[in-house]
Amino acid sequence: MVRSCEQEIPAWVYVGALLLFTHSATVSGAALKLEAALDSGATILNHSMSLVQRMEALLAIGNGSDVALRVETINTDEVKVIQAHSLVLTLQSDVFEELLLTRNSSTVVLRETPDCAAVFEKFVRYLYCGDISVRLNQAISLHKLASKYHVWGLQQGLTQYMTQHLSSDSPTGHVVGWYNYALQIGDMTLRDSCLQFLSWNLSSVLQSKEWSSISEDLLLSLLQRSDLILQSELELYEALESWINLNQPGRSTVETALRTVRYGMIPPQHLFRLQKQSPLLVKYYESIRDLLYLAFQFHSASPIQLAKYFDVNCSIFTPRNYLSSSWGSPWVINNPTRDDRSFSFQTQLGPSGHDSSKRVTWNALFSPRWLPLSARSTYTELGAMQPTRTEGGRPRIIVTPATSSPDFAGVSFQKAVIVMARQQGKVVVRHVYNFHQSTEEAGDFLADADLQRRSSEYLIDSSLYLHIIIKPLYHTLLVARK
């Protein structure tokens, strides 16, 4: 008898009772929490999980359904019918509310693209249960549905999911697709996150299948940036040549792309080889001849002499963040909270062929807590600084040349410290700290990091993985002649 009476309950009453229970549980929960604050002997009863299970069963079985969602896949004959409840749909989406108010029957016809139709049942389940499992290749489709039906909580959650899963492995890559989608819908936060990830991890992107799928606009946007992190400019040129061979863009795009390469950062022996052996460079030699001529002049003349006649502050003479040993060194700091560490390494004086054989020795000091100026120059025989320090400070890193030299005239050194991290099982760039040219340290270095916590997102196996990059910049000494 009880079961027959339940089957006769109208749909809106059946679902409304469940939702009323949800509201009552919330209000009661709030009251119980308030009571718990006043009386430590109070107990909070939470049955929300069982309610979610009942809502999921309600959708699966279709008890009390008063609307059928007919999902038709565009350009195919595929149709899915989902038995749903108008009260749930209208509470979650004002778009569904409008559709249900203007319907002429118990069926609402929805036309979706194949990718959205494939995940529509998963989307509807979220409306009932408030949780959803997402795969990398489903994120855009679900985001489209959340945007189309104004389910803003899901939309925001998916944007956050994408920004947090840029480093996840996928067979053909997904960051470029997410970037293009963000550009299409005007999501600047997601677009900038994707662009930064590609820029900071470009060396691995160049070796992946994702590189060939990069659009012309994205390619040119990346090539113009100075914050790219990769092995060398030669690596970038070779990857560009591969992209052009695969995508066969128009002549205008090829010429624009080739003119963004910083030929002055490529050693002359490699420039000679490219000039004779690169089919791309041979074909477009006349389009970039002036840049190659300037690069050879840069490598053959003294930078001081060159600076008298040319503007050496232009991009062709400006380094990016190169990981090769001529430009810096990796530094792994085990147990970084234990004590101060120091480290020495060498780089070339400058990228010019005139200076590439000259070496500069650098001293790097890491301290888990800030050290006063008076203590920074006190080194022990083993290279570690004396333990005098101020308590309660935050991590600092200082990078200084071991000696000064007349060769430094007309050259300033921009420094960058790259912090690596493991995300979704892959080692990626977590953050880049840039020094002002006139300073010896980055003031915001690891300002938000909790190195005391072994699971800190800045640590890999309890160690701090850094890479220090030194970028020599030449200065124009006299105004260039017209």
Protein architecture, described:
With 482 residues, the chain is α+β, with helices and mostly antiparallel strands. It has a four-stranded antiparallel β-sheet with strand order 6-12-10-11. It has a three-stranded mixed β-sheet with strand order 2-1-3. Strands 7-8-9 form a three-stranded antiparallel β-sheet, with no helix packed on it. A hairpin with a 2-residue loop joins strand 10 and strand 11. Helix 2 packs antiparallel against helix 3. The chain is flat and about 85 Å long. It starts with a helix and ends in an 8-residue tail after the last strand.
Number of helices: 19
Beta-strand percent range: 15-25%
Strand line-up across the major sheet: 6-12-10-11
Separation of termini?
A: 100 Å
Radius of gyration using CA atoms only: 30 Å
